[in-house]
């Protein structure tokens, strides 16, 4: 399947999130949406990125951006693994990778090995910190993350297909798309999104 490109219509999907809510992409029309495809929920690279995003959920929403996180993991295991603090925005379990297929999210063992070699010191530091707890890899080991920003009309603004297992869309790119959202007059002094991951785990 060909990769999605800016200007393409974002494939619609319907799923139940881990809190039991029905998530339909078409219901988000009128809002800008960031969809992040992670690997499995216990992936340490994904945990670093997801931890950063969790700290900024309220800022994102106040500034006009909705977030949907998708994991190639079982819903029960996601609920067991994650804390309530981490479930502030919709989290969708897609253990059969149906939505991954719609969005042409890739697999690459080469990409996984690349991230292991390039980011090994960061990975080890994070895995032995209080921010991470070990878990089972219940999704594809070779999955590579991807991110999509979708506009208010359902078209893709940005498509980021990772080159390795640690490669998510840069915060600077997300921030860029936030700047051109027209905000209500009483929201011009909202704090900016944090630029640094927790515990200085910069990927």
Structure characterization notes:
By secondary structure, the protein is of the alpha/beta class. The chain is 28% helix and 16% strand. The protein is globular. A hairpin with a 5-residue loop joins strand 6 (146-150) and strand 7 (156-161). The protein has a single domain (14-200), classed as 3-Layer(aba) Sandwich (Glutaredoxin), CATH 3.40.30. The longest helix is centred in the first third of the chain and has 12 residues, at 44-55. The two termini are 28 Å apart.
Spatial sequence of strands, sheet with the most strands: 5-4-3-6-7
Roughly how many Å apart are the termini? 28 Å
Task: Kindly give the count of domains.
Answer: 1
Helicity range:
25-40%
Range of strand content: 15-25%
Class by SSE composition: alpha/beta
- Say what oligomer this is: single chain
CATH topology: Glutaredoxin
* Overall 3D form: globular
Low-confidence stretches: 184-203
Gyration radius, to the nearest Å?
Answer: 16 Å
> Would you list the SSEs in sequence order as H and E?
EEEHHEHEHHHEEH
Protein name: Thiol peroxidase, Bcp-type
Domain Thioredoxin: 4-184
Pfam family, one: AhpC-TSA
Organism: hydrothermal vent metagenome
Structure at a glance:
This protein has about 200 residues and is α/β, with parallel strands linked by helices. Helix content is about 30%, strand content about 15%. The chain has one domain: 3-Layer(aba) Sandwich (Glutaredoxin).
């Amino acid at each position: 399947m060909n990769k999605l490109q800016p200007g393409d219509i974002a494939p619609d999907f319907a799923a139940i999130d881990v809190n039991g809510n029905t998530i339909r992409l078409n219901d988000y029309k009128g809002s800008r949406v960031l969809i992040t495809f992670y690997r499995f929920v216990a992936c340490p690279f994904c945990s670093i990125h997801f931890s950063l995003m969790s700290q900024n959920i309220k800022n994102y929403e106040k500034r006009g951006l909705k977030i949907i996180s998708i994991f190639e993991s079982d819903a029960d295991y996601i609920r067991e693994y994650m804390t309530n603090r981490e479930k502030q925005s919709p989290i969708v379990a897609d253990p059969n990778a149906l939505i991954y297929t719609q969005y042409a999210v890739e697999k690459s063992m080469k990409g996984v090995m690349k991230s292991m070699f390039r980011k090994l010191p960061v990975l080890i530091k994070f895995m032995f910190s209080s921010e991470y707890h070990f878990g089972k890899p219940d999704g594809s080991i070779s999955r590579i993350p991807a991110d999509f920003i979708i506009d208010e009309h359902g078209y893709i603004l940005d498509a980021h297909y990772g080159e390795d297992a640690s490669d998510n869309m840069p915060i600077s790119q997300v921030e860029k798309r936030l700047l051109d959202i027209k905000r209500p007059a009483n929201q011009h002094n909202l704090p900016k999104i944090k630029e640094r991951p927790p515990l200085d785990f910069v990927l």
